[in-house]
């Protein structure tokens, strides 16, 4: 319990100030805490990750035409957790080498829903699905999963390419703040119907969930909880732990889930009510205890042009979002600014992780978890070794199939309340990029308004009129339907084109402040004395080969952007 003493005795007010490199850090990026402390601190990152990842299947599985009580829903959650652990370990050890968690992301849900809205993938009625035999029901959702898996894996090759070839920096010269705002904010705005659909199943529970989330994450962040700790030579002592600051999502889910369980046991919720905790109990009963996820577990992924191009929108959104986290995490850990080779390698590895997620059949990609970035700032523990331990815990939990199935039992109204907060925060995160641009400029306001409003109009109309596009070529029809039906792609492209074509000064467009924030033009000579971003093995060999200085993703890379 020594770990609690490390971060809990720090003045809570100090966490409000920007962190300086090498200052106010309990464990820096290259530090290795004792193994027992590392495991305890890794559990915090694991629990933080669970709160963010568990909501994705609640939108994904119904779109796959999967029944509520299908045990395979638990398999998908376990697969997501397993892949998150695998990719996180690769990223922290060989990728950008920052202590970040790579896991499932909401950004991929928007193109996913656009693809599954195509006529050939729309779900039959519930009565038709109920009449199918078990094998037919399984094939009904697995054929859709194979389509998503192929689209995710192939589209992520673009991220692999721009990362490992060093094209990330060049791409960001045209991806400006007025491109990022509609791209990221539309992720949250587009999914509002899913939030309303799940929350409306019991508004009382949903509003209660929102209230607790607001209370814990905003009003009680400075409240520490007393805990017992043991120190050698001092015996048992009372320590203070920032419970509400670390686990607002998890605490909210546990409390509201428990409340629903009480209302279920006392008969307040009638049989079959969506707020009951036993409405999907068969999923847990039928799930096996152990199951190792493997590539192609739902069949060989299929690849279509429409799917791949649609998923590119999610890939681009995740790329920009992850790059914006790298300098922040590096500063929190007391590390030097991430050199260009580390950024290139981080994006390339994220793309590789999304390829693996597609091949494993998670139905989603990977992205840097903002929640875990926040956990580093709170605990002042930025050790890479802790994240590696957390990755191993995720891999082990991904094999425990019962554990994944248990999260399917969370009542829909609780999930709906979480959606309202989570989607709102994603939209706000996208809008936060407006801090770089001049909002007094009529030019910028025009681009901003059109690039956010028009995609919603177009995409919602196409959703209601899926057969409108008729070119005579089925492949072209599907491709155009997915591209024009993916709001983040339409909004991002519209913002990018308008911002780069309509005349405006660099300051007006926010390019000056944005380039400083991204810190992509870091000369590798500045970080020669630091081996923070070097590979754990083989560096002496790389330094011996002069040609490695020209490879954008190797630590020996010497060229500027």
UniProtKB/TrEMBL annotation:
The way this protein sits in the membrane is described as: Multi-pass membrane protein
Q: Which UniProt keywords apply?
A: Membrane, Transmembrane, Transmembrane helix, Transport
Pfam families listed in its UniProt record? Xan_ur_permease (PF00860)
Q: What are the record's GO terms for cellular component?
A: plasma membrane
Annotated TM spans = 35-60, 72-92, 174-196, 202-225, 246-269, 298-320, 389-410, 416-437, 444-463, 483-502
InterPro entries (alphabetical): NCS2, Xan_ur_permease
Subcellular location field = Membrane
Which molecular function term from Gene Ontology is one that the record holds?
Answer: transmembrane transporter activity
* Recorded family membership: Belongs to the nucleobase:cation symporter-2 (NCS2) (TC 2.A.40) family.
By its UniProt entry, which PANTHER family does this protein fall under?
XANTHINE-URACIL / VITAMIN C PERMEASE FAMILY MEMBER (PTHR11119)
Q: What is this protein called?
A: Xanthine/uracil transporter
Q: What is the lineage of its organism?
A: Eukaryota, Metazoa, Ecdysozoa, Arthropoda, Hexapoda
